[in-house]
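Archive transcription. Copying these from loose printouts into the bound notebook so they stop getting lost. Printout 1 of 2:
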Amino acid sequence: MQTQAVSPLMSILPFLAIFAVFYFLLIRPQRQNQKEHQRMLAALEKNDEIVTTGGVHGTIVNVKDKSVILRVDENVRLEIEKNCVAYKKAK
């Protein structure tokens, strides 16, 4: 009885296929979402209505380098980090 030798390429091929599937289904879309979020953060302006990751709704009063000042109610202002902005509400 003779056994056939399996080439090293054929033994690595399933792992490469699994990596390719993970890349196109998980890694690549996540990177695209991160880039889109960074573009949204860079485009924040005064009077934009936003929602934070904590669920706080407010209107931007001032934009700084790393933070924004939100008006959440009359005479109530919060300073939050830009990376805590979840999304900008549609006007």
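Printout 2 of 2:
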Amino acid sequence: MNKTELIEVVAKKTQVSKKDAERVVTSMIDTIIEEVAEGRDIRIVGFGTFERHDRKERTGCNPQTKEKLTIPASKVPAFKAGKAFKDAVDK
């Protein structure tokens, strides 16, 4: 399912226009991105937690040349599914 299909399903389930559903879905996604980028977690009970993890600098290897290189530290988004979500998938 892509974003357009998600918007259609949300519009149908909530009985609102696609335009209104698109605003809600887009706003929710934008808010999650902004909050996690700032280092704040978003916890949605029963669904999961969006958070930012800090990766330390590490040594890697170029697979073509076998040359060692340093991979710089970075911040990456992470999602951890909640129990209700895990249980629904495991059925």
